TrEMBL record:
Name of the protein in question: BTB domain-containing protein
Limits of the BTB domain: 40-107
Membrane-spanning parts: none
Species in which this protein is naturally found: Tegillarca granosa (Malaysian cockle)
Lineage: Eukaryota, Metazoa, Spiralia, Lophotrochozoa, Mollusca
Keywords: Kelch repeat, Repeat
Pfam families: BACK (PF07707), BTB (PF00651), Kelch_1 (PF01344)
Superkingdom, taxonomy of origin: Eukaryota
Gene3D superfamilies: 1.25.40.420, Kelch-type beta propeller (2.120.10.80), Potassium Channel Kv1.1, Chain A (3.30.710.10)
SMART domains cross-referenced by the UniProt entry: BACK, BTB, Kelch
Length: 587
């Protein structure tokens, strides 16, 4: 066969060859030149030690050497270059890395390598050192690590170390290493505001142990350190039973100004801490949390947001691990958020489901919980819209009780009648349920019931002052209050917004009006946050064309109500609650 090819075509043929192992061959060649001491053109002198090298190799690995050898500095013309700010031990490892792309790190060399790499800004090695410290941190070495990273100004790894100390505070405080902390390190640890795994009384005891370890030398730091302990969260009995209480007595004799700090504790804070179910709220921020709902821009959503009080803005917390849904029930138990039941759309049909999920804000994780025995749209499961063949209400919907310890649901006594769009709340050891729709014909009711779990019975109490559906119950100063919702006007049969906040006086079994609601909202939620009642989202005066983009804040102490326009959140048919969220959520 004869291949006829034009001369022009042959001349224009181009072939590109790429060696897959070229980088390895190049490194091997450079290493070979170094071993044979060939073509060296610079000697680095560090602490009396000399390290022959090739300028091009050093410059290719590090901007520090590139600038030194190419920007006309005097070192570019010197045969020997003396380096300061690095150690011979560290520099040897860095030069080995430049010729091999590998570095062996251990506790004997990590400080030298990190200091040298940080000084010449060999960033890949700095990162390798930081990763090594993070993966090898322990109670036995964390104090040394804190000193090292502070010396080299590495705030990210410093935060990681303090977070480790806090999460292991109980064991760390009992170790000899704790008393080796410098005053500056201990102060920064207390200020870091990461969650700890012990009570605040244990934190106080640890600080007292640190002071006692070198009392004469450290007593001068007492005021600055003890003011960083949350004394108002410690019961008087806990302070009196501290094993080192004698140290505190000695300190108070010297620093009399601290006596006010220990005498001015607020017992209410201790009570609120007990209610959270947390061992300690150090490192947490009580936050208003908004769960799911409908938005005018994105339709149904599973997103969960929380109100960051420092900036007065809503930030993303997490998302329910399920298809977008609505009409679920939520509650907070031992600072875990439970989301149970609900319904979702499938081919334009509302599908009711029995699934439940539990969110842990400290770990930022979700777990599934046992299914309810009956699917509902609405941790007691009371009423709601149970799924039936004909979408009719059950005459008496079974109530279910969830046990988080055994992850099981059990049926309890049924609430008389059947209802949906009602409200419920727990007070002391009892459950209270109010209002709702009694049937599918919008029969709004005003009934109010109390459930005793010990006797497994429901007791009918004084009904609310007006019927309410889609309303909220909340607690303030130990009393049940009702706010929001709607009812059918008895004359016009038109949907009418409930415009008052009513309080239930249990010892007299009666309700009384305590305030009027400015611009009542339909499908809004109301949650106590601090001393204020927060109304989030909804339709103003029940008008679906007038979505509420502000948060309505009612100060229950002063009686003043205001709209906070800076916290724009336009939602309806959502849920809100209060949850303690880690202050350093993003880390």
């Amino acid at each position: 066969m004869v291949l006829n090819t034009k001369k022009e075509e042959v001349e224009n043929v181009q072939v590109t060859f790429e060696a897959s192992n070229h980088s390895n061959s190049l490194l091997a060649g450079l290493k070979n030149l170094r071993e044979k001491e060939q073509l060296f053109d610079v000697i680095l002198v560090v602490g009396g030690h000399k390290f022959p090298a090739h300028r091009v190799v050093l410059a290719s690995c590090c901007d520090y050497f590139r600038a030194m050898f190419t920007d006309g500095l005097m070192e570019s013309k010197q045969t020997e270059v003396h380096l300061n700010g690095v150690t011979a031990k560290g520099m040897k490892h860095l030069i080995d890395f430049a010729y091999s792309s590998k570095i062996d790190l251990d506790f004997d060399n990590i400080e030298d390598v990190l200091s040298s790499a940080n000084h010449i800004q060999m960033l890949s090695v700095v990162k390798a050192c930081i990763d090594y410290l993070k993966t090898h941190i322990s109670i036995e070495n964390c104090v040394n690590m804190a000193s090292v990273v502070e010396l080299f100004s590495l705030p990210d790894i410093q935060s990681f170390i303090y977070q480790f100390m806090c999460s292991n505070f109980e064991s760390f405080a009992l170790s000899p290493e704790f008393c080796r902390l410098s005053q500056k390190n201990l102060s920064q640890l207390l200020e870091s505001n990461y969650p700890v795994n012990c009570s605040e009384a244990d934190v106080l005891s640890a600080v007292l142990n640190w002071i006692e370890h070198k009392f004469d030398e450290r007593v001068k730091f007492c005021c600055s350190l003890l003011t960083k302990v949350h004394i108002d969260r410690i019961k008087k009995s806990e302070i009196e039973s501290l094993p080192n209480n004698h140290v505190l007595d000695k300190i108070l004799e010297i620093h009399t100004n601290l006596q006010v700090l220990f005498q001015g504790r607020k017992s209410s804070l201790c009570h609120r801490l007990h209610q959270t179910g947390l061992v300690n709220v150090r490192g947490y921020e009580e936050s208003l949390v908004c769960v799911g709902g409908f938005s005018s821009t994105g339709g149904m959503t599973n997103e969960i947001k929380y109100l960051q009080t420092s900036t007065d803005t809503w930030k993303r917390l997490t998302e329910i691990p399920h298809v977008n849904q609505c009409n679920f029930g939520i509650c907070v138990l031992k600072n875990a958020l439970y989301v149970v039941g609900g319904c979702y759309n499938e081919q334009m049909q509302e599908v009711i489901h029995p699934y439940g999920f539990k969110y842990n804000p400290q770990l930022d994780t979700w777990d599934s919980i046992a299914q309810m025995t009956i699917e509902r749209c609405r941790l007691y499961a009371v009423g709601g819209d149970p799924s039936t063949m004909n979408d009719q209400f059950l005459h008496s919907a079974p109530c279910e009780c969830y046990n988080p310890d055994t992850n099981t649901w059990t049926q309890v006594a049924s609430l008389p009648g059947s209802r949906s769009q009602h409200a419920g709340i727990a007070l002391d050891d009892f459950l209270y349920v109010s209002g709702g729709l009694e049937d599918l014909d919008d029969g709004v009711i005003s009934s109010f019931y109390k459930y005793d779990p010990n006797l497994d019975i429901w007791t009918e109490l004084c009904p609310m002052l007006c019927p309410r559906a889609d309303h909220s119950l909340y607690l303030f100063q130990g009393r049940i209050h009702v706010v929001g919702g709607w009812f059918n006007d008895p004359v016009t049969q038109q949907r009418t917004m409930a415009t008052t906040i009513d309080c239930y006086i249990e010892e007299e079994d009666r309700w009384e009006i305590i305030a009027d609601v400015h611009l009542p909202r339909l499908y809004a939620t109301y949650t106590v946050y601090g001393d204020c009642l927060y109304g989030v989202g909804g339709w103003i005066n029940g008008n679906n064309q007038s979505k509420a983009s502000t948060v309505q804040v009612f100060d229950m102490v002063t009686g003043v109500c205001e709209d906070k326009s800076s916290t724009s959140i336009e939602l309806w048919e959502h849920s809100t609650c209060c949850l303690y969220v880690p202050s350093h959520k993003d880390s």
